[in-house]
Amino acid sequence: MAARRITEIALTCALFCILLPVVARAQAHALPQEDVQAVYRRLMQKIEPIKIFDHHAHPGFGDDADVDAQTAPPQHLPLRARETNPELVVAVKALFGYPYADMSEEHLRWLGGKSAAAEKAGGTAYWNGILDKCRIEASVANRVAMASYLDPKRFRWVFFVDSFLFPFDNNQVISENPDEAVYIPLQEKVLHRYMEQAGITQLPDSFDAYLSFITRILEENQRKGGIAEKFEVAYFRSLYFADPPPEAAAGVYAKYRSGGLPSPEEYKTFQDYVFRYLVTEGGRLHLPVHLHTAVGEGDYFSLRKGNVLNLENIVKDPRYLQTTFVLIHGGYPYFRQAIWLASMKNVYIDTSEIEVLLFPSEFKQALKLWLQTYPEKITFGTDAYPFSAALGSEEGYWLGVHSARDALATALAEMVAAGEITEAKAMEFAHGYLHDNAIRLYPAASP
Ligand SMILES: [Zn+2]
Question: Which residues, 6+ apart, have CB-to-CB distance to 283 below 8 Å?
């Protein structure tokens, strides 16, 4: 008996001695406990080769009108997005062997010649080559329509649905500010395109028929390869959607279907209902709902109306548990709040735009907080877009992946050095963020 007791004590001691270093290391610290730069280098080596899924981008040539349902109005650009950013020279040297050291007008013509030649040549090699150079396995193509120069095996279509919210006389919203005067006519164009697709020249007779028209377009676009529906509605109105009864929305439809200017309240009632209909259909059809949730282009973009927290009543509504929501651009600058919406099992968050708008030193702060809270819900995107002669979709891809890899390796290295996670766990998070978390949302579209 005594011998057995002694053995037990010995075993317990041995176990305790083995576990002690593990327990001690599991205590997280505020100060780094080891050389952060050394951990960064080790992680970066393993992060570089990861094949990326870009969850949000608008690939296309600068003169392709189908790239987006809107265009950039004149605006005062933040520092990194300006043509004077020296990183853009690094990007075009890597992508095209650009022979110059600046982006002067004359030198930009050389660059324009490259994409013009590729556009003229046709085929999918040019854009596949851009993805290859950035080590992107596949990218979302959030566009009005797909282009023949985008290989459907590498580019997954995400189509726009905002235009369904604007079928009436839109003069009220157009008059709000100069940006809306640019945006809204383009939304009207998209709606007419969808009507043409459905073979109709006028809005359907009844509200029920209008909803059927919406469903028809969603189903057709899905059959054509669409993997998600996208709202950029934060550019046009508040992201707060009330919950009106169907009769109220139907009443507005009946009143204005053939003309007349709805009051802002009437239009809002109609839009609130139709938005919820599109969200519900997104769940039924397994079409995730992508929502622009951050500061947007244009000097008139309303941060207050576009605040991601306006969507709390939608993403936390148990009726929409079947719908997957992706908060595009992570609600920036409200990224601290946005990540807590991802506690819902059907809510994801994407970093596109942020890692290009900000320099990596600041983007890393957002990414680190997210990795420390809901790492399995964070997805990568670039928001690559033909923005200007110097910052096209091509450069957007390059800048996005390089910024994200650097910020990711830094955030994870700090977490490892602070004793928050192991290096093995860090790599699991890295694979999740750059590829696996988003891919899980589109099982049918995986390469
Ligand atoms: Zn975008």
Answer: 320, 321, 322, 323, 324
